Fold:
Amino acid sequence: MDRKAAYITNVVKCRPITLHEDQPPTNRAPTPGEVVECWEYLESQITLVRPRVIVALGITAVARLLGPGAQVGTSRGPGHLHGSIPVVATYHPSPSSLNRRAGRREMVLEDLALAKRLLDAPDEALL
Structure:
């Protein structure tokens, strides 16, 4: 897929970090409050971009788009919508996520193939 055909955004609009005394800062998952603070901005991006498919990468995106309590493992596969937009849930592609369990990389590739099939489907097939 041509990179120009994809729009990449994030649930939060700044990198959440934890500061440690005498150590470099480390990345962390955003808090529920940080996600809520940025939600209106993300919704505006979705409205403006009008994506044909949303790929939710990781638990933060999956839980926000599919609802509290949604888990990546049980949300994989077709059938999810954000409004009228199909949502494909998958694991975050970071090395720490992909190396956590055997076969996870293959699962992400399967999920991306599903997203591609949805993109290639005629518009009326997405309804």
